[in-house]
Amino acid sequence: MKNLTREHFLALDQTDPLVAYREQFQLPAGMIYLDGNSLGPLPKATIGRLANVAQQEWGEWLITSWNKAGWMDMPTRLGDKIGQLIGAAAGQVIVADSTSINVYKTLAAALAMNPDKHVILSTHDNFPTDLYMAQGLIDQLGGKHSLKLVDGEAIAEHLNDDVAVLTLTHVNYKTGRKYDMAGLTAKAHDCGALTMWDLAHSAGALTVQLDACMVDFAVGCGYKYLNGGPGAPAFLYVANRHQANFSQPLSGWLGHANPFAFDWKYEPAEGIARYMCGTPPVLSMSALECGVDMMIAADIDAIREKSLHLTDLFIAAVEQLCEDHPLRLATPRDRNIRGSQVSFHHPEGYAIMQALIANQVVGDFRAPDIIRFGFTPLYTRYTDIWDAAVILKHILDTKAWDRPEWKQRKKVT
Amino acid sequence: MKNLTREHFLALDQTDPLVAYREQFQLPAGMIYLDGNSLGPLPKATIGRLANVAQQEWGEWLITSWNKAGWMDMPTRLGDKIGQLIGAAAGQVIVADSTSINVYKTLAAALAMNPDKHVILSTHDNFPTDLYMAQGLIDQLGGKHSLKLVDGEAIAEHLNDDVAVLTLTHVNYKTGRKYDMAGLTAKAHDCGALTMWDLAHSAGALTVQLDACMVDFAVGCGYKYLNGGPGAPAFLYVANRHQANFSQPLSGWLGHANPFAFDWKYEPAEGIARYMCGTPPVLSMSALECGVDMMIAADIDAIREKSLHLTDLFIAAVEQLCEDHPLRLATPRDRNIRGSQVSFHHPEGYAIMQALIANQVVGDFRAPDIIRFGFTPLYTRYTDIWDAAVILKHILDTKAWDRPEWKQRKKVT
Fold first, then answer.
1. Element containing residue B68 per DSSP (H, E)
2. pLDDT for B251-261, tens place per residue?
3. DSSP label at B22?
4. Are A266 and B149 a contacting pair at CB < 8 A?
């Protein structure tokens, strides 16, 4: 792919089978939004849904909505919908709490199911909250477990009889590197280890087959590719074969076998409902349902195909246009091990991303030196990525990033 | 108080200093809503706020809203506002997760701070999720702790040197009995125990003085008297004097000292921010802020005064009108130990509550035989409670509750 021009990208837009979905989002005029892997944009349907949940279900029906509007069943109903996006048959996914909390629940269950082994195996560059929750859990359990962090390329060789649970983020948040879920899960099982996969950068972005891969536990995020809104509730998965005997350390009343008996003694609910804890956040969960419904309507295979095309082309365009600059690809060039993002290292990455944002190209920065671009086929056009590459070239050529106020890093997510 | 008539209640409405607040809620026409202690109704301001958060902050500003719209600071900003309602100086309250999760965090911290003692003391009839979370925590910690449940009247005599933490719900959810926060906290401290108070039925309902009572930890609910919406985020409190050394078992990335450094190793944030875990649920939290803002604008002492008047009068009206029926008051007759609800035992409680709801008087049922009515001075009129008592009398006199479909209990919260 050399000598790419804007016409090439324009032609691809004209034959894009997903083109109609862009109209279903409210996107700021003139902005090229390549940060849907941090916060997905607002589906237009969500506006009406939120108004209805507030005014009709909450305002008019009040507590009767727990039954009448299906609030009480939302965690499992919405979980089953998400299950369709991640290759999970019904009854194995629930929406509850945050990704962090769900990491804690699932790792705690996995350790309890594997009491003779004491290592949680993960990678140095796993998303920090997964590692932090593991550290908190290990402390709670009295320190007899340990967290072993290895290089992503070396996971297989560290899978041995000591490992209780292998936990990985399926697609690395910084680099976009995708791990071999089927292969690593099988290897873990060969050693007697369980697996817990974090799908934060996978669900809604690419094909995931939890059941077929024989995954044990999984968690994921509602506010990235699922477009569920800022801080949307998270989800988790427990394979059917474990549902008779997994434990729930955060044993709240809505995970009780009979919460409205108000008994003093905890008795876990059957199946995945055990992973409920407190009262579900109805407003946030309703918004998430709108994002999930749209994802289900679209064809995930078509999404993946366009995503790979977008990431291939963005890499090619940036490398063609910016070849004189010290950009170094952080994302796998091999599309088979790539998620739905493209990241580059650059020593001035933070300032460059600020300049891009000032020019309406919104990606984000990840320490120490990564500029990160997420590709979301439902609303990202081929011409958007060409235009983004041209703007990046201009910023690099003119050193537009070299401003004192951009030397100071601010909080972003 | 004998020979009450509707005129008496009408006169009280005409001089009620809080009368203007009722207009700030969207209340279903014709309904007498006495269930604000289960789910507070919709503040009208919340409708516009939710639309703005979705369309402007999320839809237009997208990720920049983490700074620009103050999303990142919401947990502490809103925490400080709630602090004003519960007698907590700034920097001690945060909004995060659910009440259940916050029970776990605070009990875990209390046990870690009191390593030589191994009893969690509470009451048999504490709200079940508080007890369930304690049981889950004890299991996680390997079983060296125990949960001791005693009768509410006998708490003081069970406070001894074995007790690591005393945990009580300030106002009992079934009976409305209010415990002596200052006295029991002082007695707990005398024994070397810490305290964790659940304010689910106190915050926004009556005067609470956490700092003055020397409370150690507290948690509370956003969707009851704070009118934050179904499943609203919860809050928690840690006294300043403990903030240098409390632990956070659910050590998520937003409780890290520097979350955006993305370091692999957990380092707790200073102070109350440590109790953050995952990404805050912005939509739900924005709705909660509307409810809290209204509560702050009203005078909590005026709220308490009207609440006591409402509960005194409801007891009197029901006892006057329904004296021939087997209703037995479950709530303290002594207003000094009463929260903001009135509960009665009746063998047919479930069916009676269904009949009341069918007649637009909405309270709720709590097993095994309690009908429960919550009193919320910002929107409950004196005439409402007279009318509710008259309707209750009619249902009892005519046995309108005696229908087969009301023998079958359904899920309610």
1. helix B65-68
2. 999 999 999 88
3. G
4. no
The tokens describing A130, both together, are: 């997964």
Domain B72-297 CATH assignment equals 3.40.640.10: yes
Contact residues, chain B, for A198 at CB < 8 Å = none
Looking at domain B6-42+299-406, its CATH superfamily turns out to be: Aspartate Aminotransferase, domain 1 (3.90.1150.10)
Instruction: Please name the residue of chain A whose CA is at the shortest distance from the CA of residue B369.
Output: A261
Residues A261-309 have pLDDT tens digits of 899 999 999 999 999 999 999 999 999 999 999 999 998 999 999 999 9
Distance CA B5, CA A398 (A): 83
Task: Give, in order, the Cα–Cα distances in Å from A154 to each of A122, A161, A333.
Answer: 10, 16, 19
Q: Is the peptide bond before A368 cis (omega within 30 degrees of 0)?
A: yes
The closest CB to that of B279, out of A71, A223, A252, belongs to A223
Q: Which of A81, A117, A224, A366 is catalytic?
A: A224
Q: Which residues of A touch B39 (CB under 8 A)?
A: 58, 62-63
* CB spacing of A142 vs B139 below 8 angstroms: no
A190 classed as catalytic: no
Spatial distance between the Cα atoms of A357 and A401, rounded to a whole number of angstroms: 11
Measure in Å the smallest separation between the Cα of A67 and chain B Cα atoms.
7
For the question of residue A161 being annotated catalytic, the response is: no
Residues A359-380 have a mean pLDDT of 95
**What is the chain A residue with the closest CA to B104?**
A250
Nearest-by-Cβ selection for A133 from B131, B252, B261: B252
A6-43+298-406: which CATH number, 3.90.1150.10, 2.60.40.10, 3.30.530.20, 3.30.420.240?
3.90.1150.10
pLDDT digits (tens, 9 = 90+) for A347-362: 999 999 999 999 999 9
Spatial separation of the C-alpha atoms in residues A250 and A278, rounded to whole Å: 9
Three-state DSSP state, A76? helix
What CATH number should be reported for the domain whose range is A72-295? Answer: 3.40.640.10
Helix axes B382-398, B300-321, angle to 10 degrees: 30
| Complex prediction ipTM | 0.96
Q: Which residues pair with B167 in a beta bridge?
A: B196
Instruction: Check whether B106 has a pLDDT greater than 90.
Output: yes
Q: Look at B63 and A364 and tell me if their CB atoms are within 8 Å.
A: yes
Whether A224 is catalytic: yes
Q: What is the pLDDT of residues A35-68, one digit of tens each?
A: 999 999 999 999 999 999 999 999 999 999 999 9
What does the DSSP 8-state code read for residue A385?
Answer: H
Mapped onto helix, strand or coil, the DSSP state of residue B224 is coil
Give the HSE-up count for residue A149: Cα atoms under 13 Å, Cβ half-sphere: 15
Contact B407, B340 (CB under 8 A): no
* Residue B61 CB neighbour total at 10 angstroms: 15
3-state SS assignment for residue B371: strand
Question: Residue B288: closest CA among chain A residues belongs to which residue?
Answer: A283
Task: Residue B265: count other Cβ atoms within 10 Å of its Cβ.
Answer: 11
Domain ranges, ordered by start, for chain B = 6-42+299-406, 72-297
Kindly list the catalytic residues of B.
127, 198, 223-224, 372
- CB–CB contact A285 B231 (8 Å): yes
Contact (CB<8Å) B280/A54: no
User: Quick one: tokens of B390?
Assistant: 């008259």
Q: Do B411 and A133 touch (CB under 8 A)?
A: no
Cβ separation of A55 and B42 shorter than 8 Å?
yes
